[in-house]
Amino acid sequence: MPAPLLELRDIAKHFAGVKALDGVSLAIQPGEIHCLAGENGSGKSTLIKVVSGVNSVDSGEILIDGEPVGHMTPRLAIARGVQVIYQDFSLFGNLTVAENLSIGAELRERRRIVSWRRMRAHAESAVRRLGVQLDLDATVDSLPTSGRQLVAIARALMADPRLLIMDEPTTALTGREVATLFGVVRDIQARGIAVLFVSHKMREMLDISERLTVLRSGRVVAAGPIGQFDEPAITRAMTGSDIAEDPYVWSGDDAAPNLLEVEGLTVPGELDAVSFSIRPGEIVGVSGLLGSGRTELALALFGMRPTYAGTIRMDGAPVRLDSVQAAIARRIAYVPEDRLTEGLFLPETIDRNIIVTALPRLSRFGVMRMRDAAAAAARTIRDMAIATPTGDRPVTQLSGGNQQRVVIGRWLLQDPRLLILNGPTVGVDVGSKAGIHRAIRALARARGLGVLMISDDLPELVGQCSRVLVMHRGRLTAELPGVPAEHGAAGLRATERALSDRLKALV
Amino acid sequence: MSATLNAPPVRSGIARTLLRRPEIAVASLALVSMLAIGAINPAFWSAGNLFSLLRANVIIGILSLGVMMIMLSGGIDVSFPAFAIAAMYVTIKTMIAWNYDGVVLPFIGATAIGLLLGLVNALFVTRLKMIPLIVTLGTGTAVRGFLLGVIGVSTINIDHMPQALIGFARTDLIDVTQANGQHVGLSAMVLVYLVLALGVHLMLRHTLIGRSIYALGGGEEAARRAGFSVPGTVFFIYGLAGALAGFTGLLHGSMIWIANPHDMAGLELDVIAAVVLGGASIFGGRGSVLGTMLGVFTLVMLTNSLIIMHIDTTWQRIVTGAIVIVAAAITSWRDRGRSA
Questions:
Q1: What is the CA radius of gyration of chain B?
Q2: Residue A301 has pLDDT above 90, yes or no
Q3: Which of the four, A140, A203, A239, A282, has the lowest number of CB atoms within 10 Å?
Q4: Which of A179-183, B3-7, B12-16, B161-165 has the lowest mean pLDDT?
Q5: Does pLDDT of A3 surpass 50?
Q6: Residue B178 above 80 pLDDT?
């Protein structure tokens, strides 16, 4: 057997006394798709940085083609054929696709004067090599995420890599775009380039990779050919515990009045006669491709499409949701997709982040009632099971999943009747995801909260929702009933397949 | 329906062209303003007025080139008026003290002073990772204070100004005899401005260091990962902007025959207004020499024409302030949602 393309032997790396990597060994064969799995904080990012030479190692050896490389630097890594596509792509949004693709080569060749003709020729060959269509003259930030990713991949391939590392490449992609990406990745593999695919999405690992290495707390806890793994096994390896799958079953009173009734909701160009209802305690999923109108539906219900036509009733009484204030007054809460970038005040404490939307309720004559505020924050930390000993720590110290809970918990302080969640667990690892799901379920059950959950994550929709609506081109095109509890995991898989088939049929 | 909340809004072809090429928008604004002002007062079109307008472009124009570069990289500079005046005043004081009269050496000296001060800015920005606005506010104020407190507060007027400098700045390119028999000339300093602008344009467009400025404005982390030397680029732009400021300071003194250490106070706003009007993004990464020159031309024309339209000159400040806000609002709107 030939020497592996890349081999790590017993790598250790500390940051300020914390063991980020603790005796990690890993081998990547030429031309294989290798998946590196692990929760946030498991050491995946550090491992990438070690391989790409950004971080030096405390101990251990890095071998390429069986030879120790000694001290790895970014320059050496690139010279030995290692290319990394970071999660943020590291592209220049203000520059054209052509320049983004070719500026690296100009830099490597140590040019002083750039030639636009040479750069363009370079870029054309890069795009041709990848076999995709890209407008070379468009600025990168006018492209959708999937387009930017293709630019990043094309750029990486220009350096003739032997190993391409992709850091969570599917995070911001829709299902269809993920399929396209996988096509590109297999195509790259067919040229003998190895791919290290970093992910925490189980379905994708099983789909694309040949070998799997799972990290937990800086150690390799499982490794082997992908055939040896199934979802529960990976989950167990990643989290160190089993996460039970039990479908959410609505157990309310069938005769109870609807919490929300939507009839013929229409927004020109966005929504076309959407009708549905939610009962108290129900979690209703919304699925659909990006651009199907699912986000617009949420926005309309949150008063951000004031010119809508159609009828919206809450508790049987017609309401007019023509402003965010009107929606909030009806106790509707909306947690948007981009809450991490826009929803948190990062330098502030957890407590202040929690109470910020409830300030008017926690104040009298514009002066905050500190004791009420502290009590409200403490209650939220308990309800949402936010993992922190105290609320006066900076919110940045929390993991992504816990930050998400802060944002959701903040809206719960408003004591909502209807909670609209858009991608509630995007970018959250498996363990935290389960925690968020538990919290949402508990709230729906205990408080009779109606939840509208928009998500790309099919297992999430099927597992957490009492039914799932499918949207396409602004219309509701199907409704899938919930999975009865006794059908268990098999029932979930079946419904998930049905949902997946429906979405594929829409393309 | 295909447009979603996240997708860029579909805009008509004209709107898109204008947003992609802000130069066209500024040029149109300049043209419309010229026609309007000319209609109100035909004296606008006299050779004398046009020549003096072009002459008024020189100082703000060269300073704008420096500020535009810094804004391209994602930074901002408000220290350059102080640097320019310090370089000018120190150079002229030295010339008088040594009884030296000449052109080339003093300009080299003033440029070197500006360069040095610019590198100090860069040092703070790179080593201490400070925000450029705070750094340049601080260095600008300190340099102005040093100038007034240590070097001198008295204005050097034409009787004491080195004559070679005045002679150099009085050089005309062309002479025209107006209908009223008056001789008017186009200052050769316009040529100095054009040569510097061409130089900066070629540097930005066709050299790797120029592209590294755009790359830095597009994303510092991305620039670092691509292999650009971020500190190198920062030293280059602040150094060059400082050098341009020092050079311009002496040119300014030579052109107005006075060396006043209090001069150019508040000029940073005019220059930033011109740069933003020329389509440069306040977030960095977008801007061009041509756009900046058009922005300078438009701003100078609008403010100067208030005089020939018999509007009180205090309105100049109001117009400048309004231009900063409107132009910045338009570019923010253009850049909104990008690279989010």
A1: 21
A2: yes
A3: A203
A4: B3-7
A5: yes
A6: no
Query: Please, which pLDDT band fits residue B4 given cuts at 50, 70 and 90?
Result: very low
Chain A residues with beta carbon closer than 8 angstroms to that of B211: 99, 103, 106, 114
Straight-line distance from the first to the last Cα atom of chain B, in angstroms, rounded to the nearest whole number: 23
Single residue among A179, A204, A239 that ends a domain in this structure: A239
- The domain boundary, picked from A210, A239, A268, lies at A239
Chain A contact for B219 (CB, 8 A cutoff): yes
Nearest CB neighbour to B8, from listed A89, A142, A293? A142
CB contact under 8 A, A295 and B4: yes
* Alpha carbons B1 and A100: distance in angstroms, whole number: 31
Tell me the pLDDT tens digit for each residue of B312-323.
878 888 888 888
Contact B45, B56 (CB under 8 A): no
Using a CB–CB cutoff of 8 Å, tell me whether A206 touches chain B: no
Which 8-state DSSP code applies to residue A257? P
If one counts the domains in chain A, the total is 2
> Tokens at residue A246, please?
């039990």
Q: Which residue carries 């057997």 as its tokens?
A: A1
Whichever domain contains A95, its CATH number is 3.40.50.300
Could you tell me if residue A96 is inside a domain? Answer: yes
Beta carbons of A99 and A119 less than 8 angstroms apart: yes
**Same domain assignment for residues A160 and A64:** yes
Residue A148 lies in a domain: yes
Output the pLDDT for position A339. 55
B203 pLDDT exceeds 50? yes
pLDDT-derived band at A1 (thresholds 50, 70, 90) equals low
What is the DSSP secondary structure assignment for residue A369, as one 8-state letter?
Answer: -
As a whole number of angstroms, the distance between CA B87 and CA B246 comes to 5
Mean pLDDT to the nearest integer, A391-407: 79
A301: domain range? Answer: 258-331+459-507
Using the predicted structure, report yes or no on whether residue A427 has a pLDDT greater than 70.
no
Query: A474 and chain B: CB distance < 8 Å anywhere?
Result: yes
A291 vs B215: CB contact, 8 Å cut-off? Answer: no
For tokens 């490597």, the residue is: A108
Lowest mean pLDDT among A454-458, A464-468, A481-485: A481-485
Q: How far apart are the first and last CA of chain A?
A: 44
The CATH class of B23-329 is: mainly alpha
Residues A29 and A56 reside in one and the same domain? yes
Tokens 């007027």 sit at which residue? B157
User: What integer pLDDT is reported at residue B200 of this predicted model?
Assistant: 97
Task: Indicate whether A224 belongs to any domain.
Answer: yes
Reply yes or no on whether the pLDDT at A436 is more than 70: yes
Better-scored residue on pLDDT, B60 or B219: B60
Domain identity same for A171 and A273: no
Instruction: Please indicate, yes or no, whether residues A202 and A294 belong to a single structural domain of this protein.
Output: no
Put simply, whether A144 touches B (Cβ < 8 Å) is yes
At a CB cut-off of 8 Å and minimum separation 6, what does A329 contact?
none
Which of A107, A142, A291 has the CB atom closest to B227's CB atom? Answer: A107
User: Which of B204, B205, B214, B225 should we substitute to test contact with A (largest number of A Cβ atoms within 10 Å)?
Assistant: B225
User: Is residue A407, in this structure, part of any structural domain at all?
Assistant: no
Q: For position B309, what pLDDT does the model report?
A: 78
Whether the per-residue pLDDT at A155 is higher than 50: the answer is yes
8 Å CB contact of A299 and B219: no
Average pLDDT (B118-130) is 93
DSSP secondary structure of A167-226: ESTTTT--HHHHHHHHHHHHHHHHTT-EEEEEE--HHHHHHH-SEEEEEETTEEEEEEEG
Residue A264 shares a structural domain with residue A131:
no
Chain B residues in contact with A123 (beta carbon < 8 A) = none
**A272 and A188 belong to one structural domain:** no
Half-sphere exposure of A450 (CA within 13 A, CB side): 21
Asked if residue A171 has pLDDT above 90, the reply is no
